[in-house]
Design brief:
Layout: H1 9-16, H2 21-24, E1 31-35, E2 38-41, H3 42-54, H4 61-82, H5 88-100, H6 106-115, H7 120-141, H8 149-160, E3 166-175, H9 179-195, H10 199-209, E4 224-225, H11 231-238, E5 249-250, E6 254-264, E7 271-284, H12 289-301, H13 305-315, E8 320-326, H14 332-339, E9 346-354, E10 357-372, H15 377-403, E11 406-408
Antiparallel strand pairs: 1-2, 1-11, 3-4, 3-6, 5-6, 7-8, 7-10, 9-10
Helix pairs in contact: 3-4, 4-7, 5-7, 8-15, 11-15
Length: about 400
């Protein structure tokens, strides 16, 4: 059984570029990045990139590895300041929880990772960092993150009708194609979320600043069924009243803020989306005439997701992927696009950066998996608290980065 082996060993090397000159010329244990005198080695980055690929983490595996390891060094510093250490039992529980996402026992999961060239210690360090950061956030923000009974009542009332309820949103997306740009956009988005207190101000800002295709319409999106959105995203939106703006949300190569323009309740169906099956093709030259023609050719050829395999085989198209993911693991910008689609419908409004090239995303919804929606009052409260802590966490990490001294090996 090879549940994580989506890429062969040779393909993995080609995708990650482990044989590249820059990496071959350096000792694997040389510091690639130093942050507050803490080293991140070439070996650590390579290992984390392999782990990212093995678990199909979105984005460029190397860039994501560097970003995550920088974050984790800062998070560990914060943990030390708070006197927080995690136990071996807590780490083992985290390992077991992650392995269950792939329906594996920890030993089976480690074996599958080894087949992808990922050391066990790399994964254990990843889990330990996550467990530690959660305890830091609970210590620092737990009391501040509490929600009122009125907020819980509102969320439960809307969730009860989520099968028929729809939400009307506007979006403003700032670019986050590099770590530096991401930090700048996060700070700017946070300021905008406080400044944009009415629909006209949000619309004007979206026209001027947003790099999403909706900037032409002032960021306005059509009605979206709540049942089609990730639960964490829904919980965030349900704390907002019409005219209020969300906290910044990482969305692919961007940072998004959303303003609620309206809520429409309908008859409760009791069904919610728990997983989505979707396909993507990345087309180079986002926004160019060549890209538009290629997107049109794909759309004309493929009536269903299965047809895309034929197109890829016929044309040798790279950058094709078909994914089945729990709705909570779908990147936010893709989740919002998918929420507006019916089976085999297409969106071409998203952009990705790959190999320093701007790519237009051909996105097709293949299908949804639904189940009956259930949730006690305490489960709803917990979800709202978690969303609030997540927002505080982004701001706290931004502060840690602003105070850090980060040096890259050249």
């Amino acid at each position: 059984m090879k549940p994580l082996t989506w890429l062969s060993g040779a393909c993995l090397v080609a995708v990650l570029g482990f044989t590249g000159t820059a990496w071959a010329q350096n000792s694997p244990f040389k510091a690639k990045i130093t942050i507050n005198n803490r080293a991140i080695t070439y070996f650590e980055i390579e290992q984390r990139a392999r782990l990212n690929t093995a678990v199909r983490a979105p984005g460029d595996p190397f860039r994501a590895a560097e970003d995550a390891l920088i974050d984790e060094r800062l998070q560990q510093e914060a943990a030390e300041r708070f006197g927080i250490t995690v136990t071996q039992e807590e780490v083992e529980a985290g390992v077991a929880e992650f392995a269950t996402r792939f329906n594996l026992e920890p030993a089976q999961f480690f074996e599958a990772l080894a087949q992808e060239g990922v050391d066990a210690e790399t994964f254990i360090d990843f889990v330990r960092a996550g467990v530690t950061w959660r305890q830091v956030l609970q210590t620092r923000f737990g009391p501040r993150a509490q929600v009122t009974d009125d907020e819980v009542d509102r969320a439960m009332q809307l969730a009860a009708n989520a099968g028929g309820a729809r939400i009307l949103l506007s979006e403003l997306v700032l670019p986050a194609r590099t770590p530096e740009e991401r930090d700048e956009s996060m700070a700017r988005a946070r300021a905008l979320s406080e400044e944009l207190t009415n629909s006209q101000a949000f619309e004007d800002a979206a026209r001027r600043l947003s790099f999403a295709p909706t900037n032409i319409s002032g960021g306005k999106l059509d009605w979206i069924p709540l049942a089609n959105l990730p639960p964490a995203f829904v919980n965030l939106l349900l704390t907002l009243k019409p005219g209020e703006t969300s906290e910044p949300i990482p969305s692919g190569p961007g940072i998004s803020i959303y303003q609620v323009r309206g809520l429409q309740e309908g008859a409760a169906t009791g069904a919610k989306t728990v997983a989505v099956d979707y396909a993507t093709i990345l087309v180079p030259g986002a926004g160019t005439e060549a890209a538009r023609k290629e997107l049109a050719r794909i759309d004309a050829f493929a009536d269903t997701c299965d047809d895309l395999f034929g197109y890829v085989k016929k044309n040798g198209t790279p950058n094709f992927d078909r994914v089945v993911q729990p709705i909570g693991q779908v990147p936010n910008d893709i989740a919002v696009e998918l929420a507006r689609l019916d089976d085999n419908e297409v969106s071409t409004g998203l952009v990705r950066i790959a190999d320093n090239t701007s790519m237009q995303v051909f996105l097709m919804l293949c299908g949804r998996t639904t189940e009956l929606a259930e949730g006690s009052r305490e489960e709803v409260r917990s979800a709202l608290v978690n969303q609030r802590v997540t927002s505080y966490a982004a701001s706290f990490l931004e502060e840690l980065k602003a105070d850090a001294i980060i040096i890259y090996d050249k």
